[in-house]
């Protein structure tokens, strides 16, 4: 079996710094290229892709908001992702760095007013 010549993920998506701030209300990310992002804990909780959250979405049982939610832990997973824990006890989601980078870009675009 031949291994791929490069890792199966984008190494440039791995931030140089990932810090939980504002009492867990935000996850601040910084990349080597100077790009920075702030992801609110509520956005992260709403966008969890774990099997439990996916099932609850399919069954229309997933909450619309997570008011006052906070990130309570951030654990590295093999260099390609992090496992985030939240103040509601949820800690099943795996958040690949590529997903977090794309989510940060998406939320930044949503906050930027579009030119007419």
Automatic annotation (TrEMBL):
Domain of life: Bacteria
Keyword ATP-binding (UniProt): no
All residue ranges annotated as the Gamma-butyrobetaine hydroxylase-like N-terminal domain in the record: 21-101
GO molecular function term, any single one: metal ion binding
UniProtKB keywords: Iron, Metal-binding
Protein name: DUF971 family protein
């Amino acid at each position: 079996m031949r291994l791929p010549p490069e890792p199966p993920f984008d190494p440039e998506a791995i931030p140089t710094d990932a810090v939980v701030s504002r009492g867990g209300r935000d996850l601040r990310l910084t990349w080597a290229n100077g790009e920075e992002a702030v992801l609110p804990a509520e956005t992260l909780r709403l966008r969890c892709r774990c099997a439990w959250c996916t099932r609850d979405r399919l069954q229309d049982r997933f909450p619309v908001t997570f008011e006052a939610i906070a990130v309570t832990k951030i654990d590295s997973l093999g260099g390609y992702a992090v496992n985030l824990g939240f103040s509601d006890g949820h800690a099943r989601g795996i958040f690949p760095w590529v997903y977090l980078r794309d989510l940060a870009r998406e939320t930044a675009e949503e906050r930027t007013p579009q030119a007419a």
